[in-house]
Amino acid sequence: MQLSPQQIAERSAEAMWARDDASKWLGCALDAVGPGTATLSMIVEKHHTNGHDICHGGFIFTLADSAFAFACNAYNQLAVAQHNSITFIAPGRLGDRLKAEAREVARFGRSGIYDVRVTDQNNRLIAEFRGNSRTIEGRHFNDEA
Fold first, then answer.
1. What is the pLDDT of residue 68?
2. DSSP 6
């Protein structure tokens, strides 16, 4: 039986999540995944705040990067980041629920481009992230029947 694209995305995410200690340590939740898409969220806790008493940009970047990772790995092909950039729009604050929604812009050859929008619980834009992926050798799970 051949798996649907959604089933492939879900199985790939399940395999990745089992080994993703960084996202779990950050406090992320994997909310949704699909072919070329993923949504992760986290609550800003005291240990996420910096000297300005706002969410440290590195944690916001990590949340966005993790959503990007699940989106670009949704095809049962191992994919890694080739280049990422982020623009911070507004601060995340203690107690905010930040949500990172990744979507595929283009996939060609071994490369992909993904945009990630990070918002808070009021749908206020916190950051815009763009990730470029590159597939490498390997699979997340054995898909041979």
1. 98
2. H
Distance CA 137, CA 18 (A): 20
Beta strand pairing status for 79-88 and 125-135?
A: antiparallel
CA dist 132 and 40 (Å) reads 18
Strands 125-135 and 111-119: antiparallel
Burial class (CB in 10 A: 0-12, 13-18, 19+), 97: middle
* Spans of all domains in the chain: 5-135
For residue 70, CA distances in Å to 9, 60, 95, 118, 141 come to 9, 16, 25, 15, 14
Q: H or E element: which one contains 145?
A: none
pLDDT in tens, 46-94: 999 999 999 999 999 999 999 999 999 999 999 999 999 999 999 999 9
Q: Which CATH class is domain 5-135?
A: alpha beta
Question: Residue 13 phi/psi, 5° resolution?
Answer: -65, -40
